C-alpha cells in the first residue's frame, strides 16, 4: 500500500469544509498507518471550490467531480454534497475502484441506498472501503456509552429515548435552503437529524428497529429565498422571493426494537432555545446512560446495582486517556468539540482502508437507517399506522 491516501472531497459547504479540516488534523494527532492527504476539492461553483481549497491548503480545485473521480492519483472520494447526488457520485467512485466516505443520510430514498449498498458490497470484495458518515458515533462519550452497554453495565434494555433538537427554523423568516427541498434533501428534520438518532440508537443498543409509528409536521410552508452561501442561520432582506418548503420541520415516532425495547424519537428544527441538542437516553434493568451533545464531553451513567442510597445518574467526563479517541488529544478535562468527531471519523476511515478495523457504519447499515426513515414517512402518511421495517439487517 502506498504511504499516502490521496483524497478528493466533493462538496464545499459546511460538511466539505468540516471534512477538509478533519483530514488535515487526523494525522497530526493520531498515529496512522497511511497519511491522508486531500489533493483536490470539487464543487459545483468553480470560484467557491477554489476559495475553499486555498483556505484549507488543498493544492487543486475543480467544478467537475466526474473528472476528479477518473484521475488515477485519487484513492478515496469523500462525498459531502446534498443527498440527491450521493448515489451518482458514490456509484461512479466505487466503479472506479475508489474508497468512499459518504455523508449521511446515505441517500434520499431506499432504492438509491440499496443500489449504493450493492455496489459497495461488490467493491468491498475487491478491497475497497465504503463507509457512511454518521459522525456522532465518534463522540468519545457516546462511544463510551456503547462500551458500557456492550459490557452489560446497563443490563437488558427497555427504553430508548432520543431527541434531536435544533431551532434554526423557529423564525418563519429564516430563509429557504436546499435542506428544505425534498428533491435535494430527501426529507427534513427526519432525515437530516432524526437519522443520527436512529443510527445512534441501533449502534448503541446493538438491536434493530423493527416497526415504527410516526407523525411529521411542517409548520412554515413557504420561506424567503437567500443566496445559499449565507448558510444556516442567515436572513433574507425585505421583499425577497419565496420558495415552498417540501419537507418536514419536525418528526416524532415510536419504535419497537428487535430485543423488545421501546423507543421514542423526536427530531425538530423548531425546538426554540436548542441549537444542536442531540440527546439519547437508554434505560436497562441494571443501569442507564444519558448523553446530550450540548455537553458533549459528558456521559451520564446510572448504576442500578449499587446500594439504593448511592444510585442515580453520575457524570463521567469522557476525556480520560482510557476513553475512546480521547487519549490522542489534550490532558483529561480539557474537552473536545464538534470538529473532533470528524477527525475521529477520518482516523477510522484510514484505519479501515489499511485493514486495521472494519469500516462502520457500512452502506448496508446506513441503508437500514434509510428503511426506517421511509417507514416513518409511510406511517405519517397513513395516520400514524404502525409500519414494519422491511429488510432489517
Ligand atoms: C444541520 O441540521 C446539521 O448540520 C446536520 O446536517 C448535521 O448532520 C448535524 O450534525 C448538525 O446539523
From TrEMBL:
Keywords: NAD, Oxidoreductase. Pfam families: GFO_IDH_MocA (PF01408), GFO_IDH_MocA_C3 (PF22725). Residues 5-124 form the Gfo/Idh/MocA-like oxidoreductase N-terminal domain. Residues 144-289 form the GFO/IDH/MocA-like oxidoreductase domain. InterPro entries: Gfo/Idh/MocA-like_OxRdtase_N, Gfo/Idh/MocA_oxidrdct_glycsds, GFO_IDH_MocA-like_dom, NAD(P)-bd_dom_sf. It comes from the Bacteria. The keyword Amino-acid biosynthesis does not apply. The keyword NAD applies. PANTHER family: BCDNA.GH03377. This is Gfo/Idh/MocA family protein. It comes from Microbacterium plantarum. The lineage of its organism: Bacteria, Bacillati, Actinomycetota, Actinomycetes, Micrococcales.
Amino acid at each position: 500500500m502506498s504511504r499516502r491516501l490521496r483524497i478528493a472531497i466533493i462538496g464545499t459547504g459546511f460538511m466539505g469544509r468540516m471534512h477538509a479540516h478533519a483530514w488535515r488534523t487526523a494525522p497530526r494527532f493520531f498515529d496512522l498507518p497511511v497519511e491522508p492527504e486531500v489533493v483536490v476539492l470539487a464543487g459545483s461553483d468553480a470560484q467557491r471550490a477554489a476559495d475553499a481549497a486555498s483556505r484549507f491548503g488543498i493544492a487543486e480545485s475543480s467544478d467537475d467531480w466526474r473528472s476528479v473521480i477518473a484521475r488515477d492519483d485519487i484513492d478515496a472520494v469523500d462525498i459531502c454534497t446534498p443527498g440527491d447526488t450521493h448515489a451518482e457520485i458514490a456509484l461512479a467512485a466505487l466503479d472506479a475502484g475508489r474508497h468512499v466516505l459518504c455523508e449521511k443520510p446515505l441517500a434520499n430514498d431506499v432504492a438509491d441506498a440499496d443500489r449504493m449498498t450493492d455496489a459497495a458490497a461488490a467493491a468491498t470484495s475487491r478491497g475497497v472501503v465504503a463507509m457512511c458518515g454518521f459522525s456522532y458515533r465518534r463522540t468519545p462519550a457516546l462511544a463510551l456509552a456503547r462500551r458500557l452497554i456492550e459490557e452489560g453495565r446497563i443490563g437488558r434494555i427497555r427504553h430508548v429515548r432520543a431527541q434531536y433538537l435544533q431551532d434554526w427554523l423557529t423564525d418563519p423568516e429564516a430563509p429557504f435552503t436546499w435542506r428544505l427541498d425534498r428533491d435535494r434533501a430527501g426529507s427534513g428534520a427526519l432525515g437530516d437529524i432524526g437519522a443520527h438518532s436512529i443510527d445512534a440508537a441501533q449502534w448503541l443498543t446493538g438491536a434493530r428497529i423493527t416497526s415504527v409509528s410516526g407523525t411529521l409536521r411542517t409548520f412554515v410552508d413557504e420561506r424567503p429565498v437567500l443566496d445559499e452561501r449565507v448558510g444556516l442561520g442567515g436572513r433574507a432582506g425585505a421583499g425577497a422571493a419565496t420558495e415552498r418548503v417540501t419537507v418536514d420541520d419536525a418528526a416524532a415516532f415510536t419504535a419497537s426494537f428487535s430485543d423488545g425495547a421501546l423507543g421514542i424519537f423526536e427530531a425538530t428544527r423548531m425546538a426554540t432555545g436548542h441549537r444542536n441538542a442531540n440527546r439519547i437516553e437508554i434505560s436497562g434493568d441494571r443501569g442507564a446512560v444519558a448523553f446530550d451533545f450540548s455537553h458533549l464531553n459528558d456521559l451520564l451513567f446510572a448504576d442500578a446495582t449499587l446500594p439504593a442510597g448511592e444510585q442515580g445518574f453520575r457524570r463521567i467526563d469522557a476525556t480520560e486517556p482510557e476513553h475512546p479517541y480521547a487519549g490522542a488529544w489534550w490532558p483529561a478535562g480539557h474537552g473536545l468539540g464538534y470538529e473532533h468527531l470528524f477527525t475521529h471519523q477520518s482516523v477510522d476511515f484510514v484505519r479501515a482502508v489499511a485493514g486495521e478495523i472494519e469500516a462502520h457504519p457500512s452502506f448496508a447499515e446506513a441503508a437500514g437507517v434509510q428503511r426506517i426513515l421511509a417507514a416513518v414517512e409511510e406511517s405519517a402518511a397513513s395516520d400514524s399506522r404502525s409500519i414494519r421495517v422491511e429488510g432489517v439487517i
